[in-house]
Amino acid sequence: MESATMSTTATIRPDEAAHFGQLAADWWDPNGSSAMLHRLNPARLGYVRSAIDKHWSTDGASLRPLSGKRALDVGCGAGLLAEPLARLGAAVTGVDAAAENVAVAAAHAAGQRLVIDYRHGDIADTAFAEPIGLFDLVTSMEVIEHVADPRTFLAALVARMADGGLLILSTPNRTAASKLLLVEGAEALGAVPKGTHDWSRFLTPEELTALAEDCGLRVVDITGLSVDLATRGFKAGGSTALNYLVTLIRA
């Protein structure tokens, strides 16, 4: 639900919220406008699970390694990551800038009999975020390149981390390859809706690392998200030229 006392939108870009809100209706269609996210999701989930097991020394065979923990997914869209986190045992809160996404996410979770606390708002607005509390795991996938101020956004994520917490991000890299393939190619071919990406807003791993350190974080791992030619999907590992995943903890 939306906070009645929300007073600022420090990181939300209204044009971005409107763009993604228009995609909400078919977010869960693997062949729809969010097809690229569906292709990315298995690799992202595998990376998140590996980071969880390493950070908390959990059994890789455990079905619910997040049991007893709270997880926050910021920029949750319609719940592609939030739902698996709930299945891993976490008490999940999902936050998104588009009210349409929150509505679709809540309806889909209910249909799956999953209890997820979805909220519409800006995580950088303390009047909105502080009542939510702190979280053991904070995730934000393919979001930081869409916000108004990446540093403010990252600091807001850090503010939601509990002691000993884990933060995991993914984002496109700003390279010639990503401009050609993710922006010019994917949007021209219809694999990604037109206007989804602004290449100039992509962050390199070095830039994101500097921002993280400025926010009191330490980078534990940077892993590329690269094309898997065998499956025509994506895999965690290989080059960071197109996209990459980052695991962070408090310094």
TrEMBL record:
<comment type="function">
    <text>O-methyltransferase that catalyzes the 2 O-methylation steps in the ubiquinone biosynthetic pathway.</text>
</comment>
<dbReference type="GO" id="GO:0032259">
    <property type="term" value="P:methylation"/>
</dbReference>
<feature type="binding site">
    <location>
        <position position="44"/>
    </location>
    <ligand>
        <name>S-adenosyl-L-methionine</name>
    </ligand>
</feature>
<comment type="pathway">
    <text>Cofactor biosynthesis; ubiquinone biosynthesis.</text>
</comment>
<keyword id="KW-0949">S-adenosyl-L-methionine</keyword>
<dbReference type="InterPro" id="IPR029063">
    <property type="entry name" value="SAM-dependent_MTases_sf"/>
</dbReference>
<feature type="binding site">
    <location>
        <position position="141"/>
    </location>
    <ligand>
        <name>S-adenosyl-L-methionine</name>
    </ligand>
</feature>
<keyword id="KW-0831">Ubiquinone biosynthesis</keyword>
<dbReference type="GO" id="GO:0010420">
    <property type="term" value="F:polyprenyldihydroxybenzoate methyltransferase activity"/>
</dbReference>
<protein>
    <recommendedName>
        <fullName>Ubiquinone biosynthesis O-methyltransferase</fullName>
        <ecNumber>2.1.1.222</ecNumber>
        <ecNumber>2.1.1.64</ecNumber>
    </recommendedName>
</protein>
<feature type="binding site">
    <location>
        <position position="75"/>
    </location>
    <ligand>
        <name>S-adenosyl-L-methionine</name>
    </ligand>
</feature>
<dbReference type="GO" id="GO:0102208">
    <property type="term" value="F:2-polyprenyl-6-hydroxyphenol methylase activity"/>
</dbReference>
<dbReference type="InterPro" id="IPR010233">
    <property type="entry name" value="UbiG_MeTrfase"/>
</dbReference>
<feature type="binding site">
    <location>
        <position position="96"/>
    </location>
    <ligand>
        <name>S-adenosyl-L-methionine</name>
    </ligand>
</feature>
<dbReference type="GO" id="GO:0061542">
    <property type="term" value="F:3-demethylubiquinol 3-O-methyltransferase activity"/>
</dbReference>
<dbReference type="Pfam" id="PF13489">
    <property type="entry name" value="Methyltransf_23"/>
</dbReference>
<keyword id="KW-0489">Methyltransferase</keyword>
<keyword id="KW-0808">Transferase</keyword>
<comment type="similarity">
    <text>Belongs to the methyltransferase superfamily. UbiG/COQ3 family.</text>
</comment>
